[in-house]
User: Fold these one by one.
Assistant:
Number 1:
Amino acid sequence: MAQRVGIVAVAQTKYHPNRADANEGELAYEAIRQVLQETGLGFSDDGDGISSAVTCSQDFWDGRTISNLNVMSYVGAHLSHEDKVAEDGVNAVYTAMAQVLSGKHDIVLTVAHMKESQGDKSIIENAAFDPIFLRVLGLDFLTAAALQAQRYMHRYGITAEQCAKVAVKNRGNAKRNPYAQEPMDITVEDVLKSKMLASPIRQLDAKPVSDGACAMILASEEKAKKLTAKPVWILGVSNCYETHYLGDRDLADCNALVKAARKAYGMAGVSDPLKELDLAEVSEEYSYQELLWMEGLGLCGRGEGGKLIDSGVTQMGGQLPVNPSGGMLAGNPNGVAGMARVAECVLQLRNEAGDRQVPGARLALAHGVTGICGQLQAVMILGTS
Amino acid sequence: MTDRVEKLRDLDVFIYHGKVDIPDTYSAGTVGSRFLIEIRDNKRIMGTRCPACKRVYVPARSVCKDCFGRMDEWVEVGDKGTLLTYTVVHVPTSVQLKEPPVAYGIVQLDGADTGLVHLLGEVDPDQLQVGMKMQAVFAEERVGSILDIKYFKPAA
């Protein structure tokens, strides 16, 4: 990169099952207001203010064909500049970074917002499938994830107990995260006894319906150093797609993630991620995904996601804590999860993560995912220097 | 489009109930249409073979995702195959075609290199196993839909 891009402030709402009291814009503004107050920034084109906003939302989830409609006046976009990213929040941060690197904008606001409570999950997800060969079968993301979980567990001998351990770990970590929706003291037995949704996925293996927003401000290296004493630098970033049709790939693989991770590590100069990273925040909508994503991220060998959780490496206090925040299982809306992962990494790297702080964190990985069975994977490496 | 307004009891907030109802049409394309017509008219499941990597894609399509070349060679694959994965959905959703439990699977048909995603039927969910042989059951009345295959059942 010609120059570095820094994240100078982050904020999240508390994640909640139903924020009926706020529309999308009001919800987004709760996070936006915090980053504006923290930096003292306003919106202006003179180089000293925020000159562009990147919003992240999904049309169907917000029940209209323009999901950012209610948000425009809360992101300074009135008589100004806004772009919407309709995928994962990591990609919104990526887009904001690209705007800074383009030289056109020095300071960019990005915000992800979603109210899952407002829609019918299965209808919305069903509409995301190819209409001719998949949608007519009545599939939703849960069904697709269950097909992936079964395939992954069969191929590598991953057990339901190993998946359940992810749910126990992450909901337990969430007890130390004031933004988390579902902090829980649960056991592996609780997970295994919870209601079967779609075999092998049970209620506690799945994330809850969630409303919330996350905002952050990115700036050029020069501006970032002026705006905060603790800028966090984006050292590497990449994303990668898989083909849509589920039968075209072995669902026990996540080759898009392998590729995205390899590129992000290369850009950040990371050669041994398990050794070099201090923590990882990954987007696991279902418990099996954290194990599979660990493999894709090269943090263990193929098929060794189960062994990794058994070893305790990914627990708080382990060699590489994964999801100190509680991750998606503790409650994040789909479209916000990736940006929440970046925000949590930033808090960790600024030593501002409170009770969930990983001591001395200097290098962190944020992962985002969108679509069916991890179709779009995004990886971002963040650091203090 | 707003058809109902609800006043929440414990919040001073109105909730508007709406519904986006937009009729759509989708072209299956020439290749996708021929695939569906072969099932409708001949109960034959066809794939297309990539001239470069030789993989046979089912459902048939026109471009190989890896080699990025056109696929013009049509290959008939069997109506039997191997179950790559499955799930039994136990919770009711708004999009299911029948009351739960609903079984889904991905079946790699004999002669194909990809899996076909479909419903499973005529099977006790407890008997499902990755690797078992499955067979297509065709609908009596076929209209040019992927549901002209009713579901896959365990092969005799």
Number 2:
Amino acid sequence: MDTLTLQTKRPARPPRRRPPTKRKRAVRTNITAYGFLCAALFCFALFAWWPMIRQIIMSFQQTNLVDDPQWVGLDNFRTVVEDPAFGQAWKNTIAFTFLALICGYVIPFAVAVVLNELRHARAYLRFVVYLPVMLPPIVSVLLFKWFYDPGPGLFNYVLDSVGLPTLAWLDSTDTALISLVLVSTWMNMGAGVLIYLAALQNIPGDLYEAAELDGAGIFKRIWNVTVPQTRLILLLMLMLQIVATMQVFIEPYQLTGGGPENATVTVAFLMYQYAFVYGGNYGAGSALGVMLMIVLLAVAAVQLRLTRDEKR
Amino acid sequence: MKPRNLAIFLISSGLVLTATACGGDSESDAGGGVTITVACQPAKTAPKTRQAWDDDVKAFEKAHPGVKVKSTDQQPCYDPKTFAAKIAGGQMETVFVVPVTNYADVIAKKQAKDITGVTNLVKNYGDIKQEARDMVTKDGKVYGVPNVNYSVGLVYNRALFEKAGLDPDAPPQTWDEVRAAAKKIADLGDGHVGFGEYGGGNTGGWHFAQSIFSRGGEMVVDGKAAFNSPEGKAVLQTLHDMRWEDNSTGSKVLIGWESLMQQMGAGKTGMMLGAPDVVTDVVQKFQGKVEDYGITGIPEGKASLTGGEAYMINPKANAAETKAAMQWIDFQFNTPGKGRHDYARGKANGDPVGVPNNDYMGDSPTGQEIIKLRTENASLPVENYQTYIDASTKVMPKLEPPKAQELYAVLDVAMSAVLTRENADIDQLLADAETKANKILAQG
Amino acid sequence: MTDTTHTVHTTAHRDTADETRKVTPPSVRTRKKPRRRAAWADGHARTIVSPLELKSRWGTRIYWAVLAAVLTVFTLVFVFPLYWMVTGAMKSGEEIAQMPPTLWPENPDFSVFSDAWELFDIGTLLQNTLYYAIGAWLFALAVDVTAAYALSKLRPMFGNAILGAMLATLMIPPIVVMIPAYVTVTDVPIFGWQLLNSPWAIWFPVAANGFNIFLLKRFFDSIPDEILEAAEIDGVPPWRVLVSIILPISRPILGVVSIFTIVMVFKDFLWPLLVLPDSEKMTLSVGLSQTAGAVSQNQIMAGLVIASIPMIIVFFFFQRSIMAGLTAGSLKG
């Protein structure tokens, strides 16, 4: 649109800067801006946007990375849907998400509410609760692997010494998944606690005072003031939690290998198996990836909707 | 745009473009010579073995002027995760190793060079066992040089056998004897495990295949799952009874390939299924006592899963590189007394020499020479492996089933079930696994 | 970086700021009932429980009970496992497998740490990881700051669409697209680069971080345009505006973005597992995972202790930025 302006004769260079015409300035700003943007556009285009598109393309292809990929229609989707572990993987992922929401969503909020009431040792408690979040996940996972050991494991020792029956932890279909959730909660919940804590501190104190004057007890105050005041954050965290737990990988990879009896196979783990264990079936892995993408986008859409309604 | 503005753009985008430097291979020829890259240099953690390899490289370069050899030491040497990508991206070594499980796949995908015309460069190629050579041959064309060949046996801890009142020179020959021996060892208490077994991470299914073969069963026949058979049922039933009636398999489910050998090396596990290289690893990596470990033929001994590997050549290698690569394979891996068959040096370096971990040359003259050298320089008690050698001539070697990894994943379920659930329904587990396996096999 | 007037832009207002700043003046305190026992109940922002309730006889008792319980539980849950890790490393092979376990190693053995250092080859791993982390930090900062500046202050055509597309990537976590991303890295389209075992396989994707751009842009948005307009009239070119005006006042947010990038690279597991398979190029996390199967339990623990130290040091020194970054992200809703 600005070609005309560009082609008009330019003055040899004004002796003293006059503000250039609006159009010229717009063109120049645009060029400058895209100059600044080009590195980011490069990175995003190749390593964020293109993989998403390519995921969809690859889910309809069969490739060995050497020869040209072949179009195979819905074959890859058929392969994964017929996979005996497919249903189990989704069930596990959803169960994991659900359990992780109980452990990693409700508990941190309760903890944050209590922490916010305390007048002492706050810095220590904040530091301590966030410490596991800083550790590389592999550290937490290998540490818990040892705790779960049915032989010299810490957990069974503790259970035993307080007179409770010991558990098989990772080695039983009943407890394997919840054991993974426990590790995951331990190493991630600090972030949630601190975020809620910040939100709680933003609640104006006079709301509590008003509630108190109305005769509301402590639990009523929580229900009528704290929860509504932090609703937006709670909603946002709900989505972040779901997105985070949809991608469980390191826990089953390192602790159970998906077993026993597929009890801990997650969708992300299955994707990895297809692409990197079963002789490079990238197409089937991508098909699973596409399904995960759809689910996540749906979650995001619901979240957006809720937030918008909430804001009104 | 002002020149200085431009400068900052260039810096910002220059950051991006510097990446070009890291692409591409640097396989430039020095002075008209040829450079090859070879895989499987020993890891830094084994400095003496690594030094021996480096010496071999120097000796080889001296014997073949103009050839330069560069080694890579990725651990493990063959990594299924990156194999396809390395080939596609031109990062694959000129000489690389492929395990027997992947021969068919690699050859079908044209990821290895046709070396039919140059096999004579490996002087002893003709002495390699026929069945090993057949595995790397497709439609009359040769795609690799077999390097290792062995079959699975029963690795056992002789010291524990004695402690439990069993005769270490008369190891179990049937699964019933295995079960009885396992119980005796477990009865020692104090965390002793009679028979160690995997229950996940695809190794469970792998050992299921080894067990069913030993009993004369089959994994796949004519493209259909064949393991829902009396033999398959017996495998699971025995394991179940050992776990829940005798409590002789330990209570921990093992998932990693190394976990069982680690447990074995710790000295409290009596027996496990394994190839002779397990003995080497248990002793070398997991600090097991050399004299404690022996190996015998697989129980029942109807057939045994073979393992092994072959060296193959990068399909992108040119004629000169191929020639140098074949000469390297010849020098390092197939000459008695040289390279890896320099057992005198191995003994001096403290390597475990003497395990019958490789009979790829069979009874051929070269094979006999290798065995002679290996026995002469043995640092291990070779008599502990004699029953394995005796048995191995009678055992029929079995290849891994098609779609091995996927089938193993399916059978992991059954293996982990009998090891973790007392009320596991074996018939149901096998029927389920059969249905699943047939679906996988049908996908072709 | 600790200039709190700026952190206000990025943090929830009262979170990380020291409580000491909000202590009510002593004059207020003395005016209230001079009960020494519960003087601490005042001088704190009003929360669910009122100071009056806290000061009651039962309120005080319950408060101390709750405090004691929380301190005990937190220490047990979050500190004790780490204590167990460190002492476990120093136990001998037999002692670590012993039942019942010992609370403190009988003969603390520090040589296990040097053993683990050797076995895991932690020197190489740590060096690699540091190299990737620092490189990622510099590269991501350069890329994301310039982009956020352009989007915030230069506002080019389609700027909002680009920002939207960048933020959209936050909906899809990287693990979901690991296969196509991996394939892309092995053969970058158009350029034909092969980035397997190259640090760029880490650096490029890290720079494509919508969250960093979002944080930076929002901070830049809060800088008044007037300053920049004045600079423009004086003929100061945009890059100098960025370097000499924007960057100095953006130190808090740059701190947040820096720490997050470094921590992210340190903690990542699956991606480096895929793209840096060479044992000479591995990251610490991947190296630990690969070797853990082959060494004894006390050596594993020693390896974990060593691997945790860099992150704990980072946490000690940059606690503020880290916590500020946490809340900055969450308040976008």
